[in-house]
Amino acid sequence: MLGPAVRMEAEAGVGRRLLGHRGALAGLLLIGLILLPAVAAPLLPLADPALTAPARRMLPPLVQGHLLGSDQFGRDLLARLIWGTRSSLLVGVLATGVAALAGSLIGIAAGWFGRFADAVLMRGVDVLLAFPYLLLALAIVAALGPGLTNAMIAIAVANIPFFARAVRGAVVDIRHQDYVAAARLAGHGEWRIVGSEVLPNLTPVLLVLMTTTLGWMVLETAGLSFLGLGAQPPRADLGSMLGEGRAFLTTYPRVALLPGLVILLLVVGINLLGDALRDLTDPRMRTATPAGGGDTRAHAAAAPALPKARPDADPHGPRALLEVRDLGVDLLTAASPLGVVDDVSFQLDRGERVALVGESGSGKTLTALALLRLLPESARTRGSIRLAGQELTALPASALRGLRGRRIAYVPQEPLTALDPLFRIGAQIDETLRAHAPARDPRPRAAQLIEQVGLARVPGLRRRFPHELSGGQRQRVAIALALAHEPDLLIADEATTALDVTVQQEIIALLRRLCEDQDRALLFISHDLALVARLCRCVLVMYAGRIVEDAPMGQLLTQPRHPYSAALLACSPELGRPDKPLPAVAGEPPPPGTVHAGCPFAPRCPRAQPVCRDTDPPLVPVAAGHQARCLFPLQGKR
Amino acid sequence: MTAYLIRRGLLLVPVLLGVSLVVFGVMSLVPGDPALAILGPYATPERLADLRVELGLDQSWPVRYLHWLGNLAHGDLGRSVSLERPVLDTVLERLGPTLLLGGSALVMGTLLGFAAAMLAALRQNRTADRLVTLLVLLGISIPSFWLGLLLILVFAVWLGWLPVSGMTTVWLPGATAADVLRHLLLPMLSLSLVAAGVLGRIGRSAAIDVFAAEHIRLCRARGISERRIVLVHGLKAILARMAPVIGLQAGFLIGGAVYIETIFQWPGLGRMLVDAIAARDLRLVQGGVLVLATAYVLVNLAADLMQHGLDRRTRAA
Description:
The structure holds 2 protein chains of 2 kinds. Chain A is of the alpha/beta class. Chain A contains 22 helices and 12 strands.
């Protein structure tokens, strides 16, 4: 293996990165092992592969100078294998080249010149693609007659549609790129742009396509030869050797099996290389995820020591529903864990409504998912989460499932992705009800829920799919699902962000009513302070993965103590004051996981002192029920 | 659903016309005199002359195509020279065994491929995933004709568990289902493992996407059991995505069937094609290719309908 320094060089060329890719290395090795003797065949001291010697037929390996023995006509098997590989490879490469060239011409014509050419060419390609792949090749061989050249032509022609379609797609992509528009503006002619912009950008795509197809071409030419439609005696390729050796399968399996093994190894090598090339040129098509991802055993092993159970752990009386202590979330990456949420502690009483506010990327959603223990496997949770005194971080999966949806429920940000698009609304509600009450008929309660969220008058709601509803209706369905088992705690994650303003207000009113009626606690996550002001009594302001201010809503609105909260407030629009300028919080939030020596907000803070840059402030009380994480909290009225 | 069905059905017409045009066109690639190519070098001059008229070689290309298409509409695919009987009769006779072999291999390959894909996706980057990735690589790289020989060697020759070939006898009256199954097992396995490789490979990334999708993860927030998430929500989403890929696999299976039927002496269309090509029986080749290509188009139609049934958001292109 190469050193990490080489692998980490993102700028290194594909060729160099290939050598650092384990699959590519294995592929290159396999190909080299087979390719070298095949290329060097005329120079190697091999027996004449066509020299028959009936007296020496079917000799076992290592006898009379035959390393691998001889075949049914006494020909040296090794020599035939090497020369056969040469034929197979040559035909495969030629067929790939011809198909790629012809396919590219069609693809470029269709993709670049568009409209009429595109319509005509692509309809033709579609019809050819409607053929089972080998069948077209067979028909062509049938018409032209058997022979290695004809087989090659047939395989090449049968692959032209595939290349044409792929190249057209790539060309259409390139055509819409800025650099093409720039070349046009510069007054370059169409042909010149094709030559100077399209072809160079198409080459890598084409190379990957050719590598991934080459293995397939080798297989199929071998197949035609196997059927006796390709190489004709005395000429042989791996396929025809296999086909001729088939007659002796039971007595001398070696003769048929060896050529097949060579084909297999060669194609495995080519496919490994093709996969690696695709990985390196198009990260979206990765065949495997990078190391370090989801290993839950590591997760379990690294789980934090749980805080000792304290029998008198409840200093806030029986009203405390959710207690979060020192919650942290680390994302496991290839390099080192990224601390994205840290030192989050808060408490939520029964029936209380608390807002969690911050910019995107501040760790709000991760905190919410951590509370439900729904973080992806690549994330690790630290600290303690207690629901009505029960420690959640220690619970086994089955017990967690018993809580989710029943005691804690979640209303997601975008119900279009949060509802399963393939199931009808009725089925999803029933399923949710059955999850914790498998024996009961879910329909009466489902009807009640639909009524509760104000969807009773939507005709045929139960039979509809999520995409057949409006955004507001979908969010109501998501709320109905969350309410199914009358949970004690509702976590709503940006639950109104995707909706327009009037619908937003309706959903807020609905959530408020549903919580007030049943003494239900709500953790409402939002980036919009103005919105939560009407819903929640307490607010937690989050910045860079930590709570920077914890205050009663009224106090935060009138007298924010942390400069970040103040900046957020300044950004909220006020109704009836269109003249008010809407400043954004100056600067950018730090990327999640940044390690800070001082206060994370210091670089953006108008009040920052030198000491702020190297002292990380703790969360300290600034007034009754009011905490802020600032060395120089704001004083007095805003 | 009905609107989709009608629209998708109408799309069949141009595709099938195109297919017939290609089948007709490829056969006109034959170098030299088509009549001579069809009847072979020992044909009498009279028969050659007759056939030339019958083929309409004195007429223009479009006229000949329309004439051929007209015959096709009446179920007339011409006469096979090597078998001396109507092409249609032979083709229909051979279609059954190919559908049995190809259909069972498609089902088997889909089951194996999906099982591998889901296992790999659920155990991502662990031993099971790596093993599946390796098997899948072998699956897409292995020549199916070689795999068939290997299976014969192991299960028929060395272990003696299953017959090498001889399906021909099974189609006679009195054959039992158990006997058919015994003959079917090896060819079906050889054919399905390759399809399982491709489906496992594409299915793995589809399954990883699906299981990472928010609506699947959020099923957990509702307290739905893991089992139900994987087998109901996950499987349906994967199936909806993979339906067109399964349809495409049918095309590769038809190609693979040509090899496998040859190796196992299976009395299907694939072997008929190989024999017909060897005998230069172009009419028979034409008929076989046409029927198989049509079957493939229909399988893809079924795959599209399945996808639409699973996911109503899909539209007919």
